[in-house]
Amino acid sequence: MTFLLSRTFVSLTLRPSSSSSISMANLTTNAKSRLRGVVFDMDGTLTVPVIDFAAMYRSVLGEDEYKRIKAESPTGIDILHHIESWSVDKQQKAYETIADYEKQGIDKLQIMPGAAELCGFLDSKKIKRGLITRNVKKAIDIFHQRFEVIFTPALGREFRPYKPNPDPLLHICSTWDIPPNEVMMVGDSLKDDIACGKGAGAFTCLLDETGRYGPDDFSVTGLHPDFKVDSLSKIHNLLETNFDLSP
């Protein structure tokens, strides 16, 4: 069951100043919403970005097709969705190519700075934490084993439909027995993570380390994250400032 919550867009952006302060805009209510769960993306959010997605897409699609699709989809290419219409043999070759790039990513896997500390904070507040990725379950298992930070549930692309469809997030909310409007989706992709969170009726937080996204991107996609940060380390303060974190 989907619980939708109407709320004012709040933008929190880390300014490049010595004080490293978080600025807030357009906050028109003092009432704090309850938050009982946080769901994270993995690649580029909980882990340092290492996969060369542009090279992967070129290898799967070919240079000409890659350029055509990129021009038609300036916010990003949904490679998994694109190859679903291909023949079985062609799909298999594409998945093998994708798996090769993902294996390279696993070999270089690093936890994102601030991730372990943020998880410790969530644990101290008894806030549940889950994970949704378009990577495979094997990558999730290696992440859990290597860094000893466990997310439950943790869904890979074996769970269908995958992001940006809201079903994985709704499944986690159902498993937790927590309505989506008491959950936050955190990720670095506007078209995947923020779309998934918005579709489920959850709060959304866009991790944008490099300033990739701006107002034009939000307007074009119609996807406006509730919060935007450039570091996981800023989410701790964001949660304490804006939410009721009582069990």
UniProtKB/TrEMBL annotation:
GO terms for cellular component: chloroplast. InterPro entries: HAD-like_sf, HAD-SF_hydro_IA, HAD_sf. GO terms for molecular function: phosphatase activity. It comes from the Eukaryota. PANTHER family: HALOACID DEHALOGENASE-LIKE HYDROLASE, SUPERFAMILY HYDROLASE, PUTATIVE (AFU_ORTHOLOGUE AFUA_4G13290)-RELATED. This is Haloacid dehalogenase-like hydrolase domain-containing protein At2g33255.
